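Hi support team,

I'm filing this because I wasn't sure whether my run with hypoxanthine finished correctly. The job status page said complete, but I'd like someone to confirm that the output block is well-formed before I use it downstream. Pasting the exact inputs I used:
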Amino acid sequence: MVFNNNISLGLILGSGVDLDDRLVSEKNVLLEDTTGVHKKTVYTCTLNGKNLLVFKGRKHFYEGWGYDDITANIKYAVIAGVRNLLITNAAGGLNPNFTEGDLMLITSHINFIDKLRKEPAASHYSRRLQRLFRKACSRSKVKLHEGTYGCYSGPTYETKAEIRLQKKLGLDAAGMSTVPEVYEAKNSGIAVVALSIITNLLKENTTEKTSHENVLQTAEIASLRLNKVLPAFISELN
Ligand code: HPA
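And here is everything the job wrote out:
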C-alpha cells in the first residue's frame, strides 16, 4: 500500500463511535474486514484539509484473536507513516461525577490483560496531544473529564463486586480495548492520545444490566460530541 499523502492523524473508532460523513471528503476505503464479532473498515479521508487514516472497528482478545490481530491497526498505521494517533473506546463509567455520553481523556491506565508482548513505554500518552485535545474541547465547548482507564479482556461486563473493587483501585472507567494498541503504537514511535466514551454507568446498587445494544446506542449519541471536537483538534496538527 502506497500512501502519497501525509497523514495528519490516525483515528481508531471504538464500538458505536463514528465520524460524521458530512465532515469528511475524499473518503477512500482501503480495507473491509467482516470476520469476527466486530466489522472493521479502514479508510482515508480529508477533514478540514488534513488527511486522516481511520480504523472503524478493531479486534478483541475475547473474540479469540491473538496479539498480532489485536494490534493490526497499529501496524497498518506504521506503514502509512502515521505519527499522531487518537484512540477511542466505549467504556463503563466508574467515577460518580460521570454521566452517560461524557468524554474522558485517558491520563493513565491499569492493565488487566495478561497477553501483552511489549514492554510498556515509560510514558504512554503524549502530553502534546493531550494539551491539543483539551484545547480543542474547550474551543468547541465540549466537557472533558480526565481519568484512569482499566483494561480487561472481557467480554463480560462487571459484577457488583468487580465494580466495588474497580472503584477501590481508583479507576474512572473500564473497557476491553485500547491498552494493547497504546503499547504497540508507543513502541513504534507514534504519539498517542486516548479517549473513553462513557456509554454506561457502573453502579454497585442497581438492578440495571449493561447490554452491548445500549452501549452502542449511547456511543452513537456521544459520537456527536467527538465530531464537534475533531475539526478543532485536527486544525492544531501539522
Ligand atoms: N465494562 C467494560 N467494558 C465496557 C463497558 C463496561 O461497562 N461499557 C463499554 N465497554
